[in-house]
From TrEMBL:
Enzymatic reactions: L-lysyl(27)-[histone H3] + S-adenosyl-L-methionine = N(6)-methyl-L-lysyl(27)-[histone H3] + S-adenosyl-L-homocysteine + H(+)
Domain of life according to the entry: Eukaryota
InterPro entries, sorted: ATXR5/ATXR6, SET_dom, SET_dom_sf, Zinc_finger_PHD-type_CS, Znf_FYVE_PHD, Znf_PHD, Znf_PHD-finger, Znf_RING/FYVE/PHD
Entry keyword Methyltransferase: yes
Annotated SET domain residues: 235-357
E.C. no: 2.1.1.369
Record's subcellular location: Nucleus
A Pfam match: PHD
Biological classification of the source: Eukaryota, Viridiplantae, Streptophyta, Embryophyta, Tracheophyta
Top EC group: transferase
Annotated SUPFAM superfamilies: FYVE/PHD zinc finger, SET domain
GO process annotations (BP): methylation; regulation of cell cycle; regulation of DNA replication
Name of the protein described by the UniProt record: [histone H3]-lysine(27) N-methyltransferase
Length: 369
């Protein structure tokens, strides 16, 4: 499953002339030498007009129309020199890696986190007391000898949330901060907006060659995880900011192999409507026999933690070693869904990576970290 993106070389010019204070009046009297020097410095900046900007990474001033200027320090960077590569001109303010480290991150109080994710409050504080009898029956049904379990097909496991409720709120707060920084809304399901794709278009039967059906047991696991999310019980994950990779996700506790990490959510749209969209986070949802019916997930306005889990460069052995998740499309009750599942045991502090070039091999991931 590959995100869809156009070539980074198609970027437009990104540094229009900066707004500067009005030049001093010719009749102004200077009071000191410092005043004169400040005026002289201003005059030099106006004459340059950013025509001599060079990339702070490679030192070259070539391809000036692909250089991003930091809105804080005015340093320039080629979009291809940044890691991860910037594939389109950022909307709003942009900060270089150095300034991003010192950029203040909005923090959420416990009350705001609960409101942000619309967590359903339980009468009892204990998570076990909030568990429905139906969940209990599911757990009993799944419990069995390891010998019998090994003989069967490998099942998807529900995630184990952190036991400390305060720590869970910190985990969800890190996600809320990242979503807010990108001006996104939280959504734990696929959304169908007016003018994009109706829900009736998401039919697994349209998939070219057919789509694997999620088993009854795994569907129950998916529903159990959705219920836990609504109660504020999330996987042990933290969204952190890295100067090289940007927002990324790391494990805040041990995660077992075959654990369901997240559903890939966002707005559903037709691929033909996004052919010229160079967003690097779109995910293939449906590849139909009729290309006009193929769908993608666009998490640029609405999404969840899957938006911040990084893909890997699967063109190198080192890149493949990083992979600890797989991205799989399933037929869930007749509709297409994309799930991220652990492919091995993941230790606390380990960052999460999935192979976003696992399906469409022509995607140029060798440009990415």
């Amino acid at each position: 499953m590959a995100p869809l993106s156009s070539s980074p070389a198609a970027a437009r010019k990104v540094f229009p002339p900066r707004r500067r204070p009005s030049p001093p009046s010719p009749h102004r009297k200077f009071r000191s030498m410092e005043d004169i020097m400040r005026t002289a410095k201003y005059a030099v900046t106006e004459r340059d007009d950013y025509s001599r900007v060079v990339c702070s990474k490679c030192g070259s001033g070539e391809d000036s129309d692909e250089i991003l200027l930091c809105d804080r320090c005015d340093d320039g960077y080629h979009m291809l020199c940044l890691r991860p590569i910037v594939v389109r001109v950022p909307i709003g303010s942009w900060y270089c890696p150095s300034c991003s480290r010192n950029r203040p991150v909005k923090r959420f109080s416990q009350t705001k986190v609960i409101d942000f994710f619309r967590i359903q409050k339980c009468a009892n504080s204990s998570a076990e007391k909030c568990t429905s009898p139906q969940d209990t029956r599911k757990r009993r049904r799944r419990s069995g000898s390891l010998v019998l379990h090994k003989k069967r097909r490998r099942r998807i496991l529900p995630f184990s949330p952190t036991e400390d409720p305060a720590r869970r709120l910190e985990q969800m707060g890190s996600l809320a901060s990242a979503l807010t920084a990108l001006r996104m809304e939280f959504s734990d399901q696929l959304t169908y907006m007016q003018g994009m794709t109706p829900r009736s278009a998401n039919q697994a039967e349209f998939e070219n060659g057919g789509m694997q059906v999620l088993s009854k047991e795994d569907t129950e696991t998916l529903e159990q995880c959705r219920t836990m999310y609504k109660r504020g019980e999330c996987p042990p994950l933290l969204v952190v900011f890295d100067s090289c990779e940007g927002y990324t996700v790391e494990a805040d506790g041990p995660i077992k192999d075959m654990t369901l990490i997240a559903e890939y959510t966002g707005d559903v749209d037709y691929i033909v409507n996004r052919e010229n969209d160079d967003c690097d986070s779109m995910m293939t949802l449906l590849l139909a026999k009729d290309p006009s019916k193929s769908l993608v997930i666009c998490p640029d306005k609405r999404g969840n933690i899957a938006r911040f889990i990084n893909g890997i460069n699967n063109h190198t052995p080192d890149g493949r070693k990083k992979q600890n998740l797989k991205c799989v499309r399933y037929n869930v009750n007749g509709e297409c869904q994309v799930l991220l599942v652990a492919t091995r045991d993941i230790a606390k502090g380990e960052r999460l990576y999935y192979d976003y070039n696992g399906y469409e091999h022509e995607y140029p991931t060798h440009h990415f970290v």
